[in-house]
Amino acid sequence: VERDLCLELARDDHLVVALGAGALLDADTRARLTRQHLVVCLIARPATLQRRLQSGVTRPLLAGRDGRAKLARLLTDRATVYGAFAEQVPTDGRTPAQVVTDVLATLTSRHLRVRSMRQHIVLGYGVGVTALDLGGPTVVVTDENVARCQATRIPADVPRIVVPAGEASKTFDQLARLSREFVAAGLDRRGTVIAIGGGVITDLAGLAAATFMRGVRWVAVPTSLLAMVDASIGGKTGIDLPEGKNLVGAFHPAALVVIDPLVLGTLPAEEWTSGMAEVVKHAVIGVPRLFRALERGRRFGAVEDFAAIIEVKRAIVDRDPFERGEREVLNLGHTIGHGVEAASGYAVRHGEAVAIGLVGEARLAERTGLARGGLAARIGRVLEAQGLPTRYSGMSAQEVRAAMGADKKKRGTRLRFVLPAAIGRVTIGVEVPEPTLMRVLAELRKPS
Ligand SMILES: NC(=O)c1ccc[n+]([C@@H]2O[C@H](COP(=O)([O-])OP(=O)(O)OC[C@H]3O[C@@H](n4cnc5c(N)ncnc54)[C@H](O)[C@@H]3O)[C@@H](O)[C@H]2O)c1
Ligand SMILES: [Zn+2]
To answer: Which of 86, 128, 279, 431 to pair with 358, CA 20 to 30 A apart?
Structure first.
């Protein structure tokens, strides 16, 4: 009965439902509710719960003797289920009014500004573009998966261009198609392009907006984890060439970035995992507190977490908008990562390659004396807990090295690494002796 009622209520919006602690133990109910709705988990320490239970209310599951032991067992049994909800609000020692304030805080949207890019970021549950009054003509660009999974997010009364999903759409062909469809849709200089999708869509539509009539405004509505924490922020747009990724592009920031973590409810699990590599990268660069929380096994995904991770990129981009120096720190994990990705012929996903790169570069930091021993192992454990690989297979260290480019025979093009000195501290422009690099690349290879 409880499940049926939950499923029925899940069809509604703008509704607050107070669930009993057992309702979310049912996998169907859980999947259904978390796919489209925000679940806030109110938590309390066992001692607090014990005290509350003395108020005389009978709890069938805790009735009889040994109430304390039964409670402890229930909490252990349910720890994984409850721990999976990103928004956790502690209630120990707090009045109901204080708890309500904390719950409301999770619902309040946050605003961040990348000043150097004149980019405004709105982050919060339920934020969207449907009610946005942009003035002037608008066009939506999205991909086929997002158009299907997130149909309600896409304004119905706006012309829409649907691109095939995936990296293969970051081409001149698609750029030409978008430009021509912009004309057909009556887009002009006062108009706005609304990109709703992952990094492929924000990169492609952003570049189309950059070049259409020498530049029109655009709004990014990132729908993948990677696009939320990385691709939609900081102004880079681009497409690929057969010769390499992102070789054609422009700095043309989305004027507005609208981030609603609830959209991630329909993101395939492997895309979430891939995006987590960039989350861990940002945590290593600048959010030690979050890194330690991930080490303790806490799940990423509260609105606070998004704000903290996005703030890392925001601050760096503002100090070095056009990558003259410091912005390079965002390439952490990417020098070796790109090598692995390219040497695999892009069979290894970007996030997986970055995970391997993060561990490899932390090892380089240890070997060159920049970081203390144990850093690479710590980073590796956090990545593995997210389901990411930390070693590659199916290619040789020499192949990875070759794909990293800039070998020592070519003068003036020596590889310079971004290396972690500690969690929260990163150094740029580090040269690593070739034998050290080769040894680390060999260690990263899974023995077959
Ligand atoms: N401009 C930048 O600064 C920057 C930074 C990092 C990455 N990028 C680019 O981003 C791209 C990768 O982005 P990505 O990983 O988001 O890839 P993507 O856009 O291909 O999205 C991944 C997959 O998830 C699907 N998807 C996205 N949101 C969904 C949702 N809410 N529900 C269901 N399915 C959904 C997409 O259709 C796609 O199949 C690369 O091309 C990379 O070069 C750009
Ligand atoms: Zn990346």
So the answer is: 86
Orientation angle between helical segments 269-286 and 375-385, nearest 10 degrees: 150
Distances (CA, A) of 149 to 4, 35, 153: 23, 11, 9
Q: Which residues pair with 111 in a beta bridge?
A: 122
What is the rounded CA–CA span in Å between residue 426 and residue 331? 11
Verdict on whether the full-model pTM lies above 0.85: yes
pLDDT digits (tens, 9 = 90+) for 341-351: 999 999 999 99
Contacts (Cβ under 8 Å, ≥6 apart) of 396: 445
Active-site residue identified among 32, 153, 170, 236: 236
- Whether the per-residue pLDDT at 323 is higher than 90: the answer is no
Q: Contact at 8 Å (CB) between 218 and 120?
A: no
Using one digit for the tens of pLDDT, what is the confidence trace for 7-66? 899 888 889 999 988 888 999 888 888 888 999 999 999 899 888 887 766 777 777 778
Atom in ligand 1 nearest the alpha carbon of residue 238: 1
Tokens standing for residue 376: 């690479």
Is 334 an active-site residue?
A: yes
**What spacing in Å lies between the alpha carbon of 21 and ligand 2's midpoint?**
39
- The ligand 1 atom at the shortest distance from the C-alpha of residue 144 is 37
User: Of 86, 80, 25, which Cα lies nearest the Cα of 262?
Assistant: 86
146 lines ligand 1 (CB under 6 A): yes
Residue 275 alpha carbon to ligand 2 centre in Å: 9
Stretch (H or E) spanning 83: helix 67-83
Cα(66) to centroid(ligand 2), Å: 52
Structure tokens at 170: 């970051």
Contacts of residue 126, Cβ cutoff 8 Å, sequence gap at least 6: 38, 107, 260, 262
Non-local (6+) Cβ contacts of 316 within 8 A are 285, 286, 326, 327, 329, 330
Task: Identify each DSSP E strand in 330-370 by its residue range.
Answer: none
Rounded (to 5) percent helix, strand, coil in the chain:
50, 15, 35
Tell me how far the alpha carbon of residue 443 is from its chain's centroid: 28
Rg (CA), the chain: 24
Give the whole-angstrom CA distance, residue 164 versus residue 166: 7
**Burial group, residue 304, by CB count within 10 angstroms (0-12, 13-18, 19+):** middle
Query: Residue 111 gets which letter from DSSP?
Result: E
> Residue 305: CB within 6 Å of ligand 1?
no
Residue whose CA is at the smallest distance from ligand 1 atom 10: 199
Cβ of 207 less than 6 Å from ligand 1: no
